[in-house]
Amino acid sequence: MNSLLLGGFLAVMASGIPIAIAMCIASLLYILATGLIPPLTVIHRMVGGVDSFPLLAVPFFILAGNLMNSAGITNRIYDFALALVGWLKGGLGHVNVVGSVIFAGMSGTAIADAGGIGTIEIKAMRDHGYPTEFAVGITAASATLGPIIPPSLPMVIYGVQANTSIGKLFAGGFIPGALMALFMMALVSYYAHVRKYGADVAFSWPRMGHAFVELAAIVAVSLALYFLWSDETLGGFVRFGIPLIVVMVADKLFKFDAFMALLTPIILIGGMASGLFTPTEAAVAAAAWALFLGFVWYRTLNWRMLIKISMDTIETTAAVLFIVASASIFAWVLTTTQVTDAIAAWVLSISDSPYVFLLLANVFLLFVGCFMETIAAITILVPVFMPIIAKLGIDPVHFGLVMVLNLMIGLMTPPVGMVLFILQKVSALTFEQTVKAVVPWLWPLLVTLAIITYVPQVVLWLPGILYK
Q1: Quick check: 139 pLDDT over 80?
Q2: CA 94 – CA 441 distance, rounded (Å)
Q3: Dihedral angle of Cα 427, 433, 435, 438, to the nearest 10 degrees
Q4: Closest to 68 in 3D by CA, of 35, 26, 121, 109
Q5: How far apart (Å, rounded) are the C-alpha atoms in residues 259 and 200?
Q6: Dihedral angle over CA of 386, 391, 395, 399, nearest 10
């Protein structure tokens, strides 16, 4: 019977049917063949799989990312990154990484990063004479920062499935994301040295100074917001009204490029760390802030654009939640048939060392990421892995980052890597050329994966400070 469930799923998926429908069909076939439970259980379990308060974050994070892309925020982020690092050798490669780091704090998905700021970056790098393959490779790698640096849509799904603090998962992504960015910039510097790439903008003290003043202002505001929001004895105007007035005045006074946009991740993380709102409510705050920037501050949005953005958000949300619903029934059948227990016993029979298990898990997840969509993989595999990591004493927050990064690497690998397809369309390269361009940029991600796998404190240190 278990072979029927797993074999049926693989056979249906291999026939070309979408993975979400394949999971439903396999689960229904198993239920009909065993006759142990009514077929209507499929519907009830699918509804139960999405009947979760934290999952409300999904449509709002998607909406926030779409609003940021459509409101011209990506152009402002690009200009800020250009002022900050564009004067280095291989400048636009560094700008690509820094821009993605910033945009990762707003979108939460690699696809939004690749399709939003990635489009701008590839065009700019082409115009400055960089090979298209180089531009595509660095853009694909930097897009994976989206779900690692908070907020993160895959981490929301993982947190729901693993019953783990989403706030801790978000906090745990900062240092791994910074490591990924540093390794990518090191590789850009290497290529710039070998291929004799020069700077793309002339070094200018006023331009550089203005960018650092903007960066310093962001740090100052983030610290002020954390302390203000943590103090519940203060009135609402002091905690919210005064900070908003101050940042608006500062933005106008210093004529910053992206100051208000850069506040997005500060508001999200500061609000969650101070206990002002939950990760789900943070998604609503992100969407509200994006609406404020688009309609009131920058005035780059109109109602016609909002309708289109809303329809795109509904379409994407429906696809994501249908995958979650389908995977939930499949995962439930796996659990009730004790397949997960059998897998756990088999893995533990090989070795009871956490280090060996993490190595096997990495190899398995890298393989799965080549063939399975990220959300589906998380929803199916988390119930399988949770009993094992509980017995081995592995922190679920640590394992969550390891799992998400593995699956992000899968977005850059054929045959179903969505980032590959997006960048192929943007760059007009063939699929084979796109894959070849991306391969060298897997190294920064794999090195980071090895570090966070075997040095858990890289992930757990910041959550331990923020969530005592």
Answers
A1: yes
A2: 14
A3: -70
A4: 109
A5: 23
A6: -50
Q: What is the mean pLDDT of residues 161-167?
A: 88
Q: Which residue has the tokens 């897997």?
A: 442
3-state secondary structure of 442: helix
> Which of left, alpha, beta for 163 (phi over 0: left; psi -120 to 50: alpha)?
left
What digits encode the pLDDT tens for the residues 5-27?
A: 677 777 877 777 777 788 888 88
Q: Label residue 436 exposed, middle or buried (CB < 10 Å: 0-12, 13-18, 19+).
A: middle
Q: Is the pLDDT of residue 1 over 60?
A: no
DSSP letter at 234 equals S
List, as one string, the DSSP characters of 36-94.
SS-TTHHHHHHHHHH--GGGGHHHHHHHHHHHHHHTTHHHHHHHHHHHHHTTSTTHHHH
The answer on pLDDT for 233 being more than 70 is: yes
For 52, half-sphere exposure in the C-beta direction (CA atoms, 13 angstrom radius) is 23
Q: DSSP readout, 310-337?
A: HHHHHHHHHHHHHHHHHHHHHHHHHHHT
Is the confidence at residue 151, as pLDDT, over 90?
A: no
What pLDDT, on a 0 to 100 scale, did the predictor assign at position 304? 92
Cα 48 from Cα 329, distance rounded (Å) = 9
CB atoms within 10 A of CB 465: 10
Q: Which pLDDT score is estimated for 443? A: 94
Query: How many Cα atoms within 13 Å fall on the side-chain side of residue 330?
Result: 29
CA distance 92 to 278: 36
Measure the CA–CA gap between 261 and 75, rounded to whole angstroms. 11
pLDDT of residue 14: 73
| Helices and strands (H, E) in the chain, number of each type | 26, 0
Helix (H, G, I), strand (E, B) or coil at 228: helix
Q: Is 89 left (phi over 0), alpha (psi -120 to 50) or beta?
A: beta
User: Is the Cβ–Cβ distance between 200 and 92 less than 8 Å?
Assistant: yes
What pLDDT is attached to residue 320? 82
Contacts with 255 (C-beta within 8 Å, 6 or more apart), sequence order: none
Residue 137 near residue 437 (C-beta atoms within 8 A)? yes
Q: What's the mean pLDDT in 302-316?
A: 91
Sign of CA pseudo-dihedral 218, 222, 225, 227: negative
- Return the residue matching tokens 């499929």: 42
Across the chain, mean pLDDT equals 85
First vs last C-alpha separation in the chain = 46
Is residue 239 within 8 A of residue 231, CB to CB? The reply is: yes
At what angle are helices 418-427 and 132-143 packed, to 10 degrees?
A: 150
Q: Are 415 and 371 in contact (CB under 8 A)?
A: yes
